[in-house]
Amino acid sequence: MVTRENDDMGASVDPSTNLEEQRGDQNNPVVDKKIQERLGRQLKALYEDVVKQPIPDRLLNLMAQLEAQKKGSDDA
Question: Bridge partners of 29?
Fold first, then answer.
């Protein structure tokens, strides 16, 4: 019978798989689905106020200038 254990982050780990399969590698780390969902909720809550703030006029002006330049280069 295979029992599941928890790693240091509280994620469920199958001891029948090797460590590389459980943790992934540096370029493709493996994170438990429940941890991903919790991090997502926490990040969303953290940045909720930032998303609700209006875009500064300076940034809107810069975006308008870029759009005008793009339109001008498309017409040429």
Answer: 24
| Nearest in space to 4 (alpha carbons), one of 12, 51, 67 | 12
What's the pTM value of the predicted model, to 2 decimals?
0.40
Which long-range contacts link 27-34 to residues 24+ away (Cβ below 8 Å)?
A: none
Mean pLDDT of 55-62: 96
Residue 13 belongs to domain spanning: 5-75
DSSP characters over the chain: ----EE-TTS-EE-TTS-HHHHHEETTEE---HHHHHHHHHHHHHHHHHHHHSPPPHHHHHHHHHHHHHHHHHHH-
The better pLDDT of the pair 73, 33 is held by 33
Our count of domains for the chain comes to 1
Q: Can you give the pLDDT at residue 5?
A: 53
